[in-house]
Fold this protein.
Amino acid sequence: MMRRDGTNDENVQMSDVMCDSCGSEWTLERPMVEGHQGSCICGPCLMVAYTELVVDAGPDDDDDEATVEERSCTLCLEAKTIPMWQSPMTETAWFCRQCLKRAAGVLHKDPDIPWVKPK
Ligand SMILES: [Zn+2]
Ligand SMILES: [Zn+2]
C-alpha cells in the first residue's frame, strides 16, 4: 500500500495517493483505481498493463488454468496462478489480470475520465 507518510486516514488528499506501480501522485490528469487496503494503479500504468496482459495476450479463456507461478496481486492481495503484470518501475508490484480488467472497466465507464480501453 502506497500512502505518503503522515497521511491522515480521515482526510486523505489526492496527493497522498500514489500509484503502486510507478509511485506517481493521483492528480486530475492521472486517474487512479483503488484495490484493497489503499493499493492503487494509475491510468497510464493501467494502459500499459492492460495492453500487455489483456490485449496482446489475446482472448482470455485461460483464467482458470494454473500455468504460471503463484504470486500475490498488489491490488486484490490474493495469491493467484493466473497471468500477472509486473511493474517495470516497481519489481515487487504485480497486478493480476482480473484486477486489470476490473480497473480498466472502472476507468472506461467513468464519463469524467478520458481513459478508454486499448484495443
Ligand atoms: Zn502508475
Ligand atoms: Zn488482483
User: Anything to note?
Assistant: Residues 19, 21-22, 24, 42, 44-45 surround zinc ion (ligand 1) (CB under 6 Å). The radius of gyration is 14 Å.
